[in-house]
């Protein structure tokens, strides 16, 4: 685990051409990865990335590079200590603290270190984490700012309570996989025929829940929800996602207008920083649940959402908060409050990452799949060395060592920005690792 080099790559996919990923706030995203490769003195590699939707990579890759002094030349075996050291840098911390571009950079580096550790152990990350002792897990965490909701002893109690039955849950996961839902039919830029076709395909593929983007035009939302309901049938779970489009009052009114279509949940109805706004919406639209998390900046905001009773589903993101370490703290917070975790995976590589976190949660934290599903989108998996596998609407537990985060060398070369041939803006390309 002695790291001798850190490399960054700006990788962008032109998904805006087909409107894949389009929603009410992000009409033309180019799914992108600010990608990092860590090398050890014995030739091993760890891979991680921060997900952006295009030009943000200009800033994000630079932020990742700024963390080079914290890992290069260091034995990174103690990932709890590395995490706390990086987060605690006072000058970089000033840019947050613990949020925004620098925190996402920390996530990319920490996730690359976890990928490296799992590869050196010869295990997929979900299994590596699940086999740690409760004491080893809590030693990874930073409890500062959350002890009013979750103490070290609380965390130990949750993890110890999940110890019985772990082996049986591992076998169940290997046999049955983890339930998924698909957002692939629901992008806002798709026409009605494509929506209808993709809903039918989702049913045929065994998915038991879908999600539609909403929030740009109420009449359009009603029409699209009607189409989805006609194809999927009464009672079939159809969630909706507003991607932060509304003020509090607008959200309450808009969801009221969609209530006849029985939304399974409403996701990101307002600003991800507005805990009290989410709580007000949750009260007014009940029994329709509220879900959020993909843009929540850290464990502290999640703590407040849970304390305020603002969410019924917690949607952590593998690449926005401080990587695996902070996401474990968030899983434990959710378990403390009895809120199911349904990870966000709408973006390049996020499906590959969050499957490991959800599987670890099932085995070692919550001990349950009840009410839990992982988002799935059918985009860009072919670019990964160890892509996700979906069978009968469920994630198949990955077997390859690591965090499933390594991109194929051919994809790095083709989609490197601005050098890659798909962008065609430079005559020569730099060497690709």
Number of helices: 17
Spatial shape: globular
Kindly state the percentage of residues in helix. Answer: 40-55%
Mean pLDDT: 95
Largest sheet: 5 strands, parallel
Please report the first level of CATH classification, the CATH class of the domain at 158-406: Alpha Beta
C-alpha Rg (nearest Å): 21 Å
Tell me what you see in this structure.
41% of the residues lie in helices and 13% in strands. Strands 5-6-7-8-9 form a five-stranded parallel β-sheet, covered by helices on one side. Helix 9 runs antiparallel to helix 16. It contains 17 helices and twelve strands. The longest helix is centred in the N-terminal third of the chain and has 22 residues, at 100-121. By secondary structure, the protein is of the alpha/beta class. It is globular and about 60 Å long.
Describe the structure using short key phrases.
433 residues; Mandelate_racemase_C; 41% helix; RHMD-like; four-stranded mixed sheet; disordered C terminus; EC 4.2.1.68
Layout of secondary structure:
Blueprint: E1 3-12, E2 32-40, E3 45-52, H1 56-65, H2 68-71, H3 79-88, H4 90-93, H5 100-121, H6 125-130, H7 134-138, H8 152-161, H9 166-176, E4 178-182, H10 192-204, E5 210-213, H11 218-232, E6 238-241, H12 248-258, E7 263-267, H13 275-285, E8 290-292, H14 299-307, E9 313-314, H15 323-337, H16 350-365, E10 374-376, E11 390-391, E12 394-395, H17 409-415
Parallel strand pairs: 4-10, 5-6, 6-7, 7-8, 8-9
Antiparallel strand pairs: 1-2, 2-3, 4-12, 11-12
Helix pairs in contact: 1-5, 3-5, 8-15, 9-16, 10-11, 12-13, 14-15
